[in-house]
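Homework-ish question, so no full write-ups if that breaks the rules, but can someone show me the predicted structure for this set?
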Amino acid sequence: MSLQDFIDDQPLIDHHCHFLIRSTAENREKRLAQVSTEADNDYPLEDTKNRAAWWGFQHEANKFAVDSTDPLRNMAPDEYRAYNHKIFAHYHFETLLIDTGFIPADPVLDLDETADLTGTTIRPIFRIETTAEKWLQKTANFEEWWQGLQTEAAQAKANGYVGFKSIAAYRFGLNLTEVSKAGAQKAFTEWQKANSTRLVSPVLIKYILWNLAPVLLKQGLPLQFHVGYGDADTDMYQGNPLLMRVFLEKWCKQGLKVVLLHCYPYHREAGYLASVFPNLYFDTSLIDPLGPTAVTKVLNEALELAPYSRYLFASDASTYPEMYGLAALKFKEALKDHFARLDFVPELQKKEWIKMICHENARKVYGL
Amino acid sequence: MSLQDFIDDQPLIDHHCHFLIRSTAENREKRLAQVSTEADNDYPLEDTKNRAAWWGFQHEANKFAVDSTDPLRNMAPDEYRAYNHKIFAHYHFETLLIDTGFIPADPVLDLDETADLTGTTIRPIFRIETTAEKWLQKTANFEEWWQGLQTEAAQAKANGYVGFKSIAAYRFGLNLTEVSKAGAQKAFTEWQKANSTRLVSPVLIKYILWNLAPVLLKQGLPLQFHVGYGDADTDMYQGNPLLMRVFLEKWCKQGLKVVLLHCYPYHREAGYLASVFPNLYFDTSLIDPLGPTAVTKVLNEALELAPYSRYLFASDASTYPEMYGLAALKFKEALKDHFARLDFVPELQKKEWIKMICHENARKVYGL
Amino acid sequence: MSLQDFIDDQPLIDHHCHFLIRSTAENREKRLAQVSTEADNDYPLEDTKNRAAWWGFQHEANKFAVDSTDPLRNMAPDEYRAYNHKIFAHYHFETLLIDTGFIPADPVLDLDETADLTGTTIRPIFRIETTAEKWLQKTANFEEWWQGLQTEAAQAKANGYVGFKSIAAYRFGLNLTEVSKAGAQKAFTEWQKANSTRLVSPVLIKYILWNLAPVLLKQGLPLQFHVGYGDADTDMYQGNPLLMRVFLEKWCKQGLKVVLLHCYPYHREAGYLASVFPNLYFDTSLIDPLGPTAVTKVLNEALELAPYSRYLFASDASTYPEMYGLAALKFKEALKDHFARLDFVPELQKKEWIKMICHENARKVYGL
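A: Not a homework solution, just the prediction itself:
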């Protein structure tokens, strides 16, 4: 089988994505356009439609349209289910690991329902900051709060979670040094007094991550980090994964599996880190569906130094199946380009690496 | 019409460039070589001539030469005017927006004279720091100084200016947070006592920018920023546009049009910012004439995430017409490459985007 | 002669590389695999073998194998010498400048022996931090220590050294500002009291570099810096060459030749610096053998702004000749790509630039 066909046929484990929405959600065209960008909904829709991604989304919608005369119209529930099945099956999506922390309007929250809607296997990811915020509201002091959070984290695997995710990069950045318990207690008290339950204290987030790391390690579960590319709410200057060096030095070397998500425009830095730290994995998700002209270049740059055993497919898609589809389409095109150019390496070895990237690495990291 | 021909025929608005010089300026070859680099004039001319840009400049000089036996010789005024007309017309330059803050030796300062020399329409850009320095010398205290600067800025549109420019990145960087009036007053007093009228105080520059922003907004005029690539005098480490996040969050969201100039090597970061902030525009000028082997790659990277409605052509050229010409030549080549590769998008839409980049975006941003 | 053949035939001066090892070293396959990555030896060998570099190393081993049925077996001393000669001769290595600071296990330390093993000319590079550490152990106070270090540095040229190297980026970073003597004396006292002779004080390293600079200048010897890409022990966030601006402003402008090594992923930044500072040189070594899929792209990016008179070939190889060979192979492929695409420039000029990059620049910088 040619390398091209081999890539087309590979099953995909999408190790980082989000909830889909219901067929009954209104304004399908507008919702589809809005999810073709990381901009907030107050960003001009006209500018969003002047991006390549929007045309990629439309391309997928046209290709799989239930009604070719009006591909962007809303669908009845059974049409919508068939449409989802068609797209996820076409690209051989096998499993979706859903980050439960981001919830679009009109979501399909039930994982079994999502499995039925898409025809894939669904596994959830445990969101650390959201859970920490929930325990703030349920407890009276630092000790109780930490006990609650830690206990819930320790039961994650038993409760079906296959990994954890931190959005430290959305709250202050990735300079994740070790902090004292006294410092964390003080920060907790300030948080209790604050007007918002939103966890933004760098000290407290660092405390949580350093102290949950052994809890994850014990369960053999990986820790995902948002890195780089995100919406206007992330300070991308502080989202450089090179800032994580002290954390990686400590925890990856002890056996904690760490997964860097998105990474753009720091994907070369992420690839470098994967090439020198054990147990460090990464992807270039989000750029796949939202920057379709970039995907081949970004994948090639990501793999300049990284082992093929450390790079994973992910879409970071949500809302509608076109986003997952476009991500898979562009990602597989980029794989074809990369492996066609690759010198020195026999085809059999290339096929091993393609399998790793599409599903085997994810299977190993998340214990699927 | 083919996409190639369509691109060749597009009129160009060069929304960021500088003064040309007189035909009577001496040492045309040396002046031409020196402007083919951002290095100071004490940089070895031999190294400058070992750059691709110098050969690009010579290529333009040869192509349009009045005297093909000696393309780099000085020209008589009428020859020189015809030569300028030939180059600007060949690349369909329609309008030049001249940043009046940089003045080469032997300049053509008069804008009507520049219009006559080039056969284009000329509009001026108001330079903030230079004007602030002028008012230091004309006033006795902070209140008077601020009154003078603010009043002149408020009359900019009435006086024919189509935009403002800040070179904060040349003075300290782009970390443009809000500061107090008391802090600004203190910094002003120190500035008065200093030996130099050069404005370098971060506090004062931040104060000016945050407090002139409403004055610009009221006139509907955009604010340009030097970003990234510049001469040895800029600290490019502090010239990363991601540092501007707080400023953009505040002012772009209120409606201020902000334009990031040059951006290299932070053009991916600039494109990302344009994709999540309203009213944010950018270009990759300066690399066009000075890094001719880079132009296609840089344009493709710049457009990975940005809407086509936010990216503008500019040369950042000065001194001689060859620099404007080389910028246009390489930019149009890069556009051809980009749009030839672009998936999913119908040719009609591609043509709309090409028009936006070449002139429509500039017309809208600067109200031309 | 075609440009391709011309490039193939160019002699190479490898201005930054390390010691080879003995034929008697055990586990040749494992040693070869381990040197195909910057990871420490506790990094999983399996991941190392899932990198493109490992296959590039094997490709060289197969191409030049003494025993084609077992290309990775250990060789007898005379076989090993013939094998080394064959590889270094095939790629026209003429001279190796050996950084004496890194010593692999089973090294060939004697430079004459290395010359005999490889059939090339060998010249040594003086390692600053290692020498400073040696003098700590030999002296009782700051004045004696500084006297010893300075005197040894002043005799470097007389002792056959052709350049100096600093690994400041491995100890704290590249923000190399000027410090006071009093500060250095205080830092020295703390160093004396510390448990380790490892020099890590930023103050002391800065003091050494600013105060040895005139000593180097007087001998006309260049100063190399580790920049960017290195093993997990370097904080690459602090390894950005833009941080060196104050040092370059002071010393390059006074005539000190500075050479930035490796640079990836900051090679665009390094190229920019070379385009605006006199006496600044750089390479993209290490990526050549360890990131073989990256070499063409990285070379093209490095040369976007830099003069051809400022960019040098280097492998940063050590241990086995395959690493030097793979670096040369990929580097020459990248040169072919770059010069085939280069517009405007006559072939004769291209050949001049190719000679500069392959050997002439190094000859000039190191006074060979």
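Now go work out the reasoning yourself. Hint: The first helix of chain C runs from residue 3 to 9.
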